[in-house]
Amino acid sequence: MRLIFLGTGTSLGVPVVACSCAVCHSTDWHDKHLRTSALVETNGGRNILIDIGPDFRYQMLREGVRHLDSILITHAHRDHVGGLDDIRSFNYVQNQKMEVYCNREAREAIERDYHYIFTPHEFPGLPEANLHELSGDSPFHAAGEEIMPIKAMHKLLPVLGYRIGGLVYITDANYISQSEMHKLENADVLVINALRKEKHFSHFCLPEALEIIAQVNPREAYITHVSHDMGFYAEVSKELPPNVHIAYDGLKVEL
Question: Is the pTM of this model over 0.85?
Answer without folding.
Answer: yes
